[in-house]
Design goal:
This protein has 12 helices and 3 strands. By secondary structure, it is mainly alpha-helical. Among the domains are: 55 residues; 135 residues, no CATH class.
Amino acid sequence: MKRITLSEEELERVIKLRQETNASWLKIQKITDIPRHIAKREYQQWFAKQSVDELKTARINIAEKDFNQHRHYLCKLADTLTNHLAVPSFPNITKNSKQYLDKLWEKPIIEDELSQDTMITNVDEQLIQRTKRQNKLLFKSLQEHTRSRVDWNVLNQWVQARDQCWINLQSLHAAANTVLTNILNQDVNFLRTIERDSKEHNAFSRLLKGIDWVIWWNIAVTKSIKIRRLLQTSTAGAPTSPVTVVEFNKRPILTFSEQALANKTRDRGNRAISNLCKGREQESVASLADCIKQMAEVVESLERLLDPLVLRPLILSTHCELCPLW
């Protein structure tokens, strides 16, 4: 009967002779007693199949690497997003929250593209636009992977709450201005004395900012409109020439050479805070607290749903347009 195919053992012998000794097909025929045209054909078929399998394995490895990188970028974007939305400990709130939110897209998520230093020292508009475009594509991808779990309309709620925070903060700042002015004017030339000793011509503005800090921090951190931490004083400087610092939460506001004057300034500032929180402006404080609470609830919800322990398996079980094909 005419030989057509080789057994597994025969094929292995042909492969070994061909690859390890580079034997010719005629020599293989003499050694194995297998017709050379059959040995050559079977070897070439095996080799072609190996090439296809290797290519398939290589593609799978590349796709797996790309997918892991894709998942890493999505988790990094989710972390950057929640950090960007977090309620600040101090009231550095700008007027337009949509513009603030848009700043998120300028933060480089994809590595080796645009560093923070480049953004600060050498602003290249093309690079920034590319970063924004890539981040928006990633955000769309994140939304596609999480649409079964996350209601992304909460971002609109966050924008509205933050904008209202800014309005309430301006109102409270104006009220604090009036209250603090009335308190300081009870002592003739008290403000001038503060300015002279602290060497700060804008001492009133700095003290007013300190009042903003106290109210905001107590609401944002303690989550209560009850003021649990007020302006404080601490001693600094050399033992031979100490100074007294009016501060809040380690943030200096005014520095005095006279301790008694520093304590008096601290007490006047705290009285203004007390009046704001229990007088006619109590409603403004409550409104500010409500807006801060709304912002915090959005962030807490997203932090919970976008936690890496939740997000990683969710990405594995879903698909988006940027996911590599296996």
